[in-house]
Amino acid sequence: MSLPKDTTVLIVGAGPTGLASALSLLHHGFKDLVIVDAVVKGDNSSRAIVVHAATLEALDVIGCGDELVSKGTKLTSMNFDTRTETLAHLAFDALEPHTRHPYILLIPQTLTEHILGEKLASFGVTVHRPHKVVGMKVNAGDANLADITFEDGQVITTRYIIAADGARSTIRTSAGIGFVDPNSNHVHDSTTPAQIALADVTFDNPDLSDSNFRGVVPANSFFICIPLPFTFNEYLAKESGKPIIGERIHRVARAGPIKEGPVPHAPPKAYIQDLIDRFGPLDLSSDPSVNPNGKGVCVKEVIWSSRVRTHSAVADTFFTRLSSGDSSKPEGAAVLLVGDAAHIHSPAGGQGMNLGLRDAVFLGEALAKHVKATESMPLSEADDMLTKFVAERRARALEVIGFTKNLLSIAGVDEGIVAWWLPVSKVTLRDWAIWMLGKVYYFRKQATWGFSGLGRR
Q1: d(Cα 139, Cα 145) in Å, to the nearest integer?
Q2: pLDDT tens, position by position, 111-122
Q3: Which of 87, 148, 329, 353 meets the CB 3.0–4.6 Å disulfide criterion with 434?
Q4: What DSSP designation does 38 have?
């Protein structure tokens, strides 16, 4: 398919953040945009599965929140347990005075992308696929424009580039923007959960069809089991042409330290079953002699599985200009980073896609204002608007990185003794602290507030 020769805004990447960036620009009255993606169609796996209150509020602004809510499941509470008993219960109704979304929405990323894509198509905007960016340079005729070259040789000339092309962003690399862990001097010990095995599975026990979020915090680890909405089953059947999966699909995830050895690229059924039996709640064990219900629960089918690392990184800046380097004045096409192109961090707390979506929604408004401002003021003054905006977004990214690292540090407590004068295991002390704090309403509310993102929109 032939690409347009030029556009004012080129969005590279049609994942959730790229789609939301386009929808936000349209909502704020800006239509001269093109969105491209390197693959033929979006990934059909679930990946990120939660949308938090602050993100739903941002999506409400551009008219997308209600559709997501209609396709997802509202998670109103979470338990954090040992393998046998509850440590803390978090109820999200504590957020009711602050948001119209006092819950976590469970909805697989593939459904989120589908809904955002359908919304974008309703405005007559097509995602151009597959078009992979391979180069970017200053336009020879106008230093304020950039020529973006694609693998098939086509070129788009543009004034603004939004990089929504993921953690290995070609645009970010071409622009020469650094991307490192903000705490790169900090060395994690061997007990830190540094890798996560993920899988979407069905179980052979129909009693699990209405189960709730299950979170377990053993030593050096965390384990979760979360039921996904049946709309996901319907979507998979529609996309694959296969019969609908009858059992509820659950997301299973277990984080562990590097010292245990690498997680397989696509963990097989036996590997996932072993993780559940070793680290999950006992009533999910496949061993009848261990399961308190007297009957084993076995993984029936692995729908999808993968692995991720819990590393973090943030771009040095989320805004720069692709300057030719021969002028002291601001010039060159504007390069703006959103989502994983701008920041990555541990999946703990389900914050990654959420922060990216909020980046995108707010960027649409800021960029529409910038385009209009350049019509009546010097570029340097207009750029102050974007500079201030990206500084705020980068500060939010650093806060989220800190939040997820704190969650990992709680999970990474080992079985060692606290001290010679306090011969209690660190895990026991941590669990006791969680149990005590879980009894205090203020701490429970602060925990739900932290997950919701309402304090760092």
Answers
A1: 5
A2: 999 999 999 999
A3: 87
A4: S
**Other CB atoms within 10 A of residue 230 CB:** 16
Where do we find the tokens 């093109």?
A: 34
Amino acid in the structure at residue 389: F
By three-state DSSP, how is residue 14 classified? coil
Q: Kindly state the tokens that stand for 403.
A: 């939040």
The answer to whether the beta carbons of residues 163 and 171 sit under 8 Å apart is yes
Phi and psi dihedrals of 136, rounded to 5? -150, 130
Separation between Cα atoms, residue 303 and residue 307, nearest integer Å: 14
What is the number of residues in the chain? 457
DSSP at 29: T
Q: Find tokens 């010679």 and name the residue.
A: 420
Using a cut of 0.85, tell me whether the model's pTM lies above it: yes
Q: Do the Cβ atoms of 146 and 157 come closer than 8 Å?
A: yes
Q: What is the pLDDT of residue 43?
A: 63
List, in order of start, the domains of the chain with CATH numbers. 6-72+107-184+312-409 (3.50.50.60), 193-309 (3.30.70.2450)
DSSP 85: S
Helix residue spans in 123-204 (DSSP H): 170-174
User: Which residue bears the tokens 């020769």?
Assistant: 5
What is the per-residue pLDDT across 11-50, written as a single tens digit (0 to 9) for each? 999 999 999 999 999 999 999 999 999 998 766 566 899 9
Q: Which residues contact 153 (CB under 8 A, 6 or more apart)?
A: none
Summarize pLDDT for 217-238 with one digit per residue, the tens: 988 889 999 999 999 999 999 9
Q: How many helices (H) and strands (E) does the chain have?
A: 11, 23
* Nearest by Cα to 75 from 448, 330, 450: 448
- According to DSSP, the residues that pair with 333 across neighbouring strands are 322
